[in-house]
Amino acid sequence: MISIKLLKQLVKFGAVGVLASGVHYVVALTASTILGCSLQASNLMGFSCGFIISYVGQAFFTFGHAFSWKTLSKYLLLACFTYTLSVLIVTLLSGFLPPAGLFAVTVMLIPVFSFLISKFFVFRRT
């Protein structure tokens, strides 16, 4: 059975993830369409803003963790890992699933790994 505390963390984690993704999207779209930045530059700006929202939200709101350079560096490592994992999933499954299926699998698996790594590595209480 899932505990109330874990259920609350999962809901908070999801809410922060949706907010960070929305910020990434809006910033990237604005940079690209209004400011005329390249797609790569726009995506980097969006990712950077989303990353900040994600770290602050997950650290303080989801896991009740104070800021530290150690957790920030671990969270950046997590972001790199999950991006690499998403590339790997898409690469390995691209011959078996259409794009909609590839991205559906990716967006279902990445948050699971991200939550587990956040809870048991990045924001783990020592």
UniProtKB/TrEMBL annotation:
GO terms under cellular component: plasma membrane
Boundaries of every GtrA/DPMS transmembrane domain copy: 12-123
Name of the protein: GtrA/DPMS transmembrane domain-containing protein
Pfam families in the cross-refs: GtrA_DPMS_TM
Species assigned in the record: Marinagarivorans cellulosilyticus
GO biological process: polysaccharide biosynthetic process
TM ranges: 12-35, 41-63, 75-96, 102-122
Location(s), subcellular: Membrane
Primary subcellular site in the record, as a coarse category: membrane
Record carries keyword Transport: no
Topology class, membrane: Multi-pass membrane protein
Entry's family note: Belongs to the GtrA family.
Keywords: Membrane, Transmembrane, Transmembrane helix
